[in-house]
C-alpha cells in the first residue's frame, strides 16, 4: 500500500514546492510591491559593489551623462582613517564613513555650451551627513559650494574672467536668505540657496519625505525585482529612484521631464 502512495506523494510535494517558489518569485501580488524601510534601501545604495553610469535625458533627448560612485571608508580602532592597505598588528579595521561622488555634464543649449558638475558627499555610519562639496562650471564661470556639519558653515565661491568672489556663511545667516540677497544681490543667486535649508536635515532625506517599496522593472523580456524610492518636492513635483537589489542606480525620474537611465539599460 505504501509503495503505491510513494510516487504520488513525491509528485504532489514537488508540485506544491514549485507553486510556492513561483508565487514567491513572480506571483507575490501585493507582496511584490510591499513597503520596505528607506534605511534598508539607502544602505544598499551606500554599499553598492558597482558604480552607476547614467545617461541624462530631457523630454526624450540625450543632453549629458553622469557617474555615481559610492564607497565605504574604513578606520582603525583608534579612530584614525588609514589610507594604507597594511594594518598594524593588534589594530582592527571598522566602518568609518560612507562617501558618494557624482560627476558629469549636461548640454545647456548649443553643442559647445556644457555645464559640468562634481559633487562629493560624506556620511557617518548612521547616515548623518558630514561634508558636502559641489562645483558647477560653465566656461568661463564656476561656482563652488562647501559645507561642514560640525562647523555649521557653508562656503560659497564664484569665479569668472573678471575675477573671483568668496564668502563663508553660518547656518544662522542662511536662515534669513532675504537679507543675504539684499546684501549680495548680484553674485548670490537664489537657486544656490535652495539646497541650504536641506543641510539642516542631517540625514539622507535632505528635507524630503521618502517612501520605499519593492517593485518590478522590465529589462528586455524579463521582469527584475527592484526597489523604488519615491518623494514629493514642494508637494507638487514627483521624484522617483529605481534601485537594483544590490544598490545600483537604474533609473531616476525628476521634475521637468528629466530622466536618468543606467547605460546598462540603454544598451539593451
Brief overview, please?
With 268 residues, this protein is an alpha+beta fold.
Fold and architecture overview:
- It is a single chain.
- The protein is an alpha+beta fold.
- Helix content is 21%, strand content 46%.
- The chain has a 14-stranded antiparallel sheet with strand order 1-10-11-12-13-14-2-3-4-5-6-7-8-9.
- The longest helix is centred in the first third of the chain and has 24 residues, at 2-25.
- It is globular and about 80 Å long.
- Residues 26-32, 77-84 and 186-198 have low confidence and may be disordered.
> Could you say which overall geometry the principal axes of the C-alpha atoms support?
globular
The oligomerization state is: single chain
Residue stretches low in confidence (pLDDT < 50, at least 5 long) are 26-32, 77-84, 186-198
Number of helices: 7
Biggest β-sheet: count, sense, barrel?
A: 14 strands, antiparallel
Q: Strand arrangement, largest sheet?
A: 1-10-11-12-13-14-2-3-4-5-6-7-8-9
Structural class: alpha+beta
Strand proportion, as a percent range, falls in: over 45%
Whole-angstrom Rg: 24 Å
Number of strands: 14
